[in-house]
Amino acid sequence: MYYVGMPPSYFYLIDVLSQKICTYVVCVLICLQKIRLNQTFKGLSYDFCVSESFCSMTFTKTVPALAECFSTLILWKAGDTIKSRLPIYFRARFSHVQSIIDCFEIEIEKPSDPIKQTLTWSNYKKCNTLKYLISSTPDGYINYVSSGFDGRTSDIKITDSCGYLDVLPDGAGVMADRGFKGVAPALEKKSCSLIRPPSVSATQKSSKDEVRLSKRIASLRIHIERVIRRVREFSLLKPHACVNKKLVKYVDCIVVIACGLINLQAPIISKHV
């Protein structure tokens, strides 16, 4: 778990992956350890007794193939399956929820192109970032992750254009925070409902029922934050890891690999909780 983020019971998959993508086991380990610990290629060369250039070349050649394999672990399960695994606190009022969504950002090195600098600048993070939409079931299984968008892209625009709405089943419930209010019309077209905390007005005091509903939704929506926290356990994807310019084009693949590995780990929350 420490070196590659994979539970011991799934270690056999390393051999399976090496055979599937026709490479050496050491190449798979170099990639997974780089993602998990964000070691330099020089450090990896010492660990695996190979050259620094071999580690760098192996990473750039192997990561896309690994991502293709791990993408099969990120899938949208049938509604009945999701419902059968609902944590107990969802069952009374939010039993139709199939997806909890949020966005997370990953810092990248400042691009040399001024236009790319502007597009990737995040006012929220105060640095250049790539932004991803992630969705999980109520028990924490990642069932969708988008490709990366420029850091200045709004959550609503990402949701509308990343392909999430294409895989979302008709009639599903989607839980999100207030920032996703604008996606409600698109969800209504698919007969889906948006569950979010009531809007807050600076001039009007919230009612007791609204406050109570906000707290209830926040206590359940926090599970997607716990999922994102697991993503951040991969050091290359920490908020301020600052991905090297040469590796930026591989971040989408890295995110997919991390999410696939997370789905092999123990559930975020037990269905009995």
Automatic annotation (TrEMBL):
Residues 101-263 form the DDE Tnp4 domain. It holds the Pfam family HTH_Tnp_4. Keywords: Membrane, Metal-binding, Transmembrane, Transmembrane helix. It comes from the Eukaryota. InterPro entries: HARBI1_dom, Transposase_HTH_dom. One of its GO terms (molecular function) is metal ion binding. Its cofactor is a divalent metal cation. It comes from Pyrocoelia pectoralis. Residues 28-71 form the Transposase Helix-turn-helix domain. This is DDE Tnp4 domain-containing protein. The keyword Aminoacyl-tRNA synthetase does not apply. Signal peptide: none annotated.
